[in-house]
Amino acid sequence: QVQLVESGGGLVQPGGSLRLSCAASGTFFSINTMSWYRQAPGKERELVASLRNGGSPHYVDSVKGRFTISRDNAKNSVNLQMNSLKVEDTAFYFCVAEILYSATYSRLHWGQGTQVTVSS
User: How far is Cα 10 from Cα 44, in angstroms, rounded to an integer?
Assistant: First the structure.
């Protein structure tokens, strides 16, 4: 069993910052890609940022220059530093990890999500 837990969400004013964190626990070989998705009411779920083990980060255009994804493999965790937050960043944010159980077998795991609300 693998558990993925997000933290760091909350209410912040426009222009403020939040740091989301996601940690994986359980028994597995390794973690390949770790990502952050978000979904706002009435909008489609979108990939915000992702980072493959040994690869380069990906960001959706709307957050480039403001968000930074990073990971700590020793802690099996991924972070999303969100700066200069805008009202349109308001959404429920999910951590998603591709968990490798062997060199050739993996499954996607989703965290429970955390709410980010940007409002004055």
Answer: 21
Separation CA 5–CA 114 (nearest Å): 9
List the structure tokens of 88: 């349109």
39, 83, 103 from 80: Cα distances, Å? 16, 10, 27
pLDDT in tens, 64-95: 999 999 999 888 999 999 999 999 999 999 99
pLDDT of residue 73: 86
The set of long-range contacts for 39-47, using a CB threshold of 8 Å and a minimum separation of 24, is: 39/91, 39/92, 39/94, 40/88, 40/90, 40/91, 40/92, 43/91
Do 23 and 75 form a contact (C-beta atoms < 8 A)? yes
Q: pLDDT tens digits for 3-46?
A: 999 999 999 999 999 999 999 999 999 999 999 999 999 999 99
